[in-house]
Amino acid sequence: MSSAGIQIRDLSMTYNGKSGEPITALQNINFDIREGEFISLLGPSGCGKTTLLRIIADLLKPSSGDISILGKTPREIRLQQKYGIVFQSPVLYDWRTVRRNICMPMEIMKIPKKERTARITKMLEVVGLEDFGYKYPFELSGGMQQRVGIARALALDPDFLLMDEPFSALDEFTREKLNEDLLNIWSKDKKTVIFVTHNIPEAVFLSDRVVVLSPHPGRVSAIVDIDLPRPRKNALREEAIFYEYVAKIRKSFEGV
Ligand SMILES: Nc1ncnc2c1ncn2[C@@H]1O[C@H](COP(=O)(O)OP(=O)(O)OP(=O)(O)O)[C@@H](O)[C@H]1O
Ligand SMILES: [Mg+2]
């Protein structure tokens, strides 16, 4: 097996339902993720996107199959703090300022104070919140809170950024703005991003490739290369080629 990127082989996950009945969330998942790639996991509710992301993040053990990440197991990668994770809601601590929220993973990792301070300042700049470091989460809009979540995930300079529907609670304008901002952040150091969404245009706009999952049980039904030039700006959403990709992916859901 190659030691670059991520290889997912014959991965299956069966949960135990309430009365002990098996619920197959993922069945026989096989695909690779290249280093530095922006990949989306796209599919309808219940198709196993979060399950797959949690298995990659070593927050969940699969029932069978293997994942190799840079030649290591997900557990080794987690222990080396190579993951940054952004969830659907940013889970910020209300009693901590924005700066102290971003600081949390660095405190846990016992990074010296001087370096923490410098990194927080840099991360605030990266996500465009330079003037909000001393505010509390409740003083921020939902989009700004989500940016704090991204800054916190990036604070330890992870190799992999795992994002589970990070913008789905936001309005369309804010979502599109943050999509563009995320690409700007990503273009600076090209971390490998695994982005979960059920929004087709969002997946097309952001990704190098889209892994389309179909439900019951979750399987890979298509992998679509998004061959659109970068840098991508929101005006791209109005171009015919963009619609063509959206239509192509929508078609791959037909009959599912
Ligand atoms: N802890 C659990 N116990 C039992 N079944 C579960 C558990 N977590 C998820 N499932 C089931 O596994 C399947 C996949 O769930 P998962 O949360 O991964 O889907 P998803 O694609 O992330 O959906 P959504 O878009 O709604 O977030 C679903 O059928 C769900 O009911
Ligand atoms: Mg989910």
What would you note in describing this structure?
The structure is a single chain. The protein is an alpha/beta fold. The protein has 2 domains: 1-82 and 158-256, Rossmann fold; 89-157, no CATH class. The chain has helices at 49-56, 74-79, 98-108, 113-126, 142-154, 172-189, 200-206, 240-253, and strands spanning 6-16, 22-33, 38-42, 64-69, 83-86, 160-164, 192-197, 209-214, 219-225. The strands form 2 sheets. A 6-stranded mixed beta sheet has the order 5-6-7-3-8-9, sandwiched between helices. A 3-stranded antiparallel beta sheet has the order 2-1-4, with helices on one face. Helix 3 (98-108) packs across helix 4 and helix 7 (200-206) packs across helix 8 (240-253). The longest helix is centred in the last third of the chain and has 18 residues, at 172-189. The structure holds adenosine-5'-triphosphate and magnesium ion (MG).
Topology:
Elements: E1 6-16, E2 22-33, E3 38-42, H1 49-56, E4 64-69, H2 74-79, E5 83-86, H3 98-108, H4 113-126, H5 142-154, E6 160-164, H6 172-189, E7 192-197, H7 200-206, E8 209-214, E9 219-225, H8 240-253
Parallel strand pairs: 3-7, 3-8, 5-6, 6-7
Antiparallel strand pairs: 1-2, 1-4, 8-9
Helix pairs in contact: 3-4, 3-5, 4-5, 7-8
The structure holds adenosine-5'-triphosphate and magnesium ion.
Q: Nutshell version of this structure?
A:
By secondary structure, the protein is α/β, with parallel strands linked by helices. It contains eight helices and nine strands.
